[in-house]
Specification:
Shape: elongated
Strand content: 5-15%
CATH class of the largest domain: Mainly Alpha
Strand order of the largest sheet: 6-7-8-3-9-10
Distance between the termini: 43 Å
Radius of gyration: 35 Å
Largest sheet: 6 strands, mixed
CATH architecture of the largest domain: Up-down Bundle
CATH superfamily of the largest domain: ABC transporter type 1, transmembrane domain
Number of domains: 2
Number of helices: 22
CATH topology of the largest domain: ABC transporter transmembrane region fold
Structural class: alpha/beta
């Protein structure tokens, strides 16, 4: 199994790497190739259609320049007394047709770009979700991973399409520029180089703007995450009752307003800096444009350009200036998005270790013994291990319990046994073989884990149970057997639509369950998996004492010979286990049967009596074994 990747990325280091990437033609070509491959895979027909429309629009613009010149020439001939009415109407109609074609192309392009954008976004979401559901569970213990995920969701998902949009805009502007430029050269060769020079100030200012935008996105990621979280707390269904019970609405809104005001202040300063650069760049281009127009006036006065040619040149200058600005803006968009694409590429690379989980031979169908062999685990960003050299053994068909106070490392140990965390040291072994020798996906398929903080899916009762094994379509008989085994059948079958009832009031016809009923649904989910090893992490936390006792008393019968690891902080629940392991500060401090541990007068006996004292008189609690 690959080592856990916590997605740690130092923002300062990432910015430094981005700055070190020069805006060279080679880098531009790399970004273009990457983005075109993605867009081509998402919608090649739309992409080719957009390119064809760009070329058509470019030809229409060049034709408009020539049509304007022909119209002006015809008008001047009429003023001189000529009867060239046909020579006037033909270019006028041609100009009207070309203008209409340009407008139609623009409208069609907008709709096609929207559809292509959604297809690219869908493709990117597929890849991002593959990473978020495939990376090691330890990644979700790292705030750096969440920061990176937030950046990808906020910025990088749309950037591949923005690069392609920039490429399409560049292609269209280049094609239009060539057409209009050729028309302008036919009027006066001097005007074209002046206009090209006019785009340089915009290009120079855009280089700095792209860096500012990337730096701003990097520094604002934690702020945006907090804003998103505060929004969720104030709108979430689960949080609503506590917000009202404790009167938190005004306090939370004030926190939200403070975070949002901080962001708006930073955004305002950022946009002022970008606006200043943009103004300077466009002022430089405007100065060059004025010089170009002055040169045109000089040509008219010296007789180097006719009046009709001058009118067409003015139209061409305006069109060409727009196309040059579009060309350089496309370059800016590509380079600016490229900084985010580097971040996105690094994030998507996190999926590689996850793909290794399905590689390798399948794990055996069963085992005679499974256990943790001196395993340790340290969470990302923590200096102290959560589990220290713990050893736990389970033999086939046994019910083994792990007990300890909160924070003793019980759940972390369970996640290692389930193949969800890789031990920092030591190994999880099946019949003496390190499970890393097999495909981890096949190992997990033979384990059912029922967590205390299980997910309450807003789906039907049948789907909630059948999520225990999605390797094949659910069967009603199997779902009902699992529900009966977990004691959830009565609550489900009493609902209006039975197993088809959505277990959430978010949807019409939905019903909610009590905490204890939900707990039984979660346990049914584990039974449905029909796994060789069942791990129950505080499965009775929401059950009343009688239901808890019944659950554990029937556990052996329900498991039908399967191996079970039962985790609890309630010592009275697990006294009938074949073996009990006691954890403290991440270590296994003692183990044995209930009677052996009570006779040892160690930590188990002390904690058992402390808990018993809450229910029995002191003299009886002290004698209880």
């Amino acid at each position: 199994m690959a080592a856990p990747n916590d997605g740690h990325v130092d923002p300062a280091q990432l910015r430094a790497q981005a700055r070190s990437q020069r805006k060279s033609l080679s880098r531009l070509s790399v970004l273009i190739r990457q983005s075109v491959r993605l867009v081509w895979a998402s919608g090649r027909g739309l992409f080719l259609g957009l390119l064809a429309l760009q070329i058509a629009a470019a030809l229409a613009l060049a034709g408009q320049v020539l049509a304007v010149q022909a119209v002006l020439a015809a008008v001047l001939d009429l003023e001189a007394g000529s009867q060239a009415s046909a020579a006037l109407w033909v270019p006028v109609l041609l100009l009207a047709v070309l203008t209409a074609v340009t407008s139609i192309i623009s409208a069609v392009q907008g709709h096609m770009q929207r559809l292509l954008g959604e297809r690219v976004a869908r493709s990117m979401w597929d890849q991002v979700l593959e990473v978020s559901t495939g990376v090691g569970l330890a990644s979700f213990e790292s705030p750096d991973f969440f920061n990176r995920l937030q950046r990808v969701q906020s910025n990088a998902l749309s950037r591949p399409y923005q690069v392609t949009q920039g490429l399409i805009a560049m292609g269209g502007a280049l094609a239009a520029g060539i057409g209009v430029g050729a028309a302008l050269v036919s009027i006066s060769p001097l005007l074209l180089p002046l206009l090209i020079i006019g785009g340089v100030p915009v290009l120079l200012s855009s280089r700095r703007e792209s860096r500012l935008e990337f730096d701003f996105a990097m520094t604002q990621t934690p702020v945006l995450r907090m804003r998103q979280y505060l929004t969720l707390v104030q709108t979430g269904r689960e949080e609503a009752k506590e917000v009202r019970a404790f009167g938190l609405a005004a306090w939370l809104h004030a926190r939200f307003a403070l975070v949002y005001d901080t962001y708006l202040g930073d955004l305002s300063r950022h946009l002022r800096r970008r606006a200043t650069l943009s103004v300077l760049g466009n002022l430089g281009s405007a100065v060059v444009l004025v010089l170009t127009l002055a040169a045109l006036v000089w040509m008219i006065l010296t007789g180097q350009v006719t009046v009709a040619g001058a009118g067409a040149a003015i139209v061409a200058i305006r069109m060409l200036a727009t196309q040059i600005q579009t060309l350089f803006a496309g370059v800016q968009r590509i380079f600016e998005s490229g900084l985010f694409l580097e971040d996105l590429r690094g994030f998507l690379a996190l999926a590689e270790p996850a793909r290794e989980d399905v590689r390798g031979p399948d794990a055996p169908a069963g085992f005679a013994a499974v256990g943790a062999d001196r395993v340790s685990f340290t969470y990302p960003g923590s200096e102290q291990p959560a589990v220290r050299e713990a050893t736990v053994d389970l033999r086939a068909g046994e019910v083994v319990a792990v007990v300890g106070e909160n924070g003793s490392g019980k759940t972390t140990l369970a996640k290692m046994l389930a193949g969800l965390y890789e031990p920092s040291t030591g190994a999880i072994r099946w019949d003496g073989t390190d499970i890393r020798q097999w495909s981890l996906a096949s190992v997990r398929s033979k384990i059912a884990v029922i967590f205390q903080d299980f997910v309450r899916y807003a789906l039907s009762a049948e789907d909630n149970i059948a999520t225990g094994d999605v390797s094949q379509p659910p069967t009603s008989d199997r779902v009902r057997r699992a529900a009966r085994a977990a004691g959830a059948a009565e609550a489900i079958e009493s609902m209006p639509d039975g197993y088809a009832t959505p277990l959430s009031r978010l949807f019409a016809g939905g019903r909610d369950l009590s905490g204890g009923q939900w707990q039984r649904v979660a346990i049914a989910r584990g039974y449905y998996r029909d796994a060789q090893l069942v791990i129950l992490d505080e499965p009775s936390a929401a059950l009343d004492p009688r239901a808890e006792h019944e659950l554990f008393a029937s556990l052996r019968h329900t498991l039908e010979g399967r191996t079970a690891l039962f985790i609890s902080h309630r010592f009275s629940t697990v006294r009938a286990a074949d073996r009990i392991y006691v954890m403290d500060a991440g270590s296994v401090v003692e183990h044995g049967t209930h009677e052996e541990l009570m006779a040892a007068e160690g930590q188990y006996a002390d904690l058992f009596r402390v808990q018993a004292a809450a229910y029995l008189p002191p003299e009886q609690a002290g004698e209880t074994v």
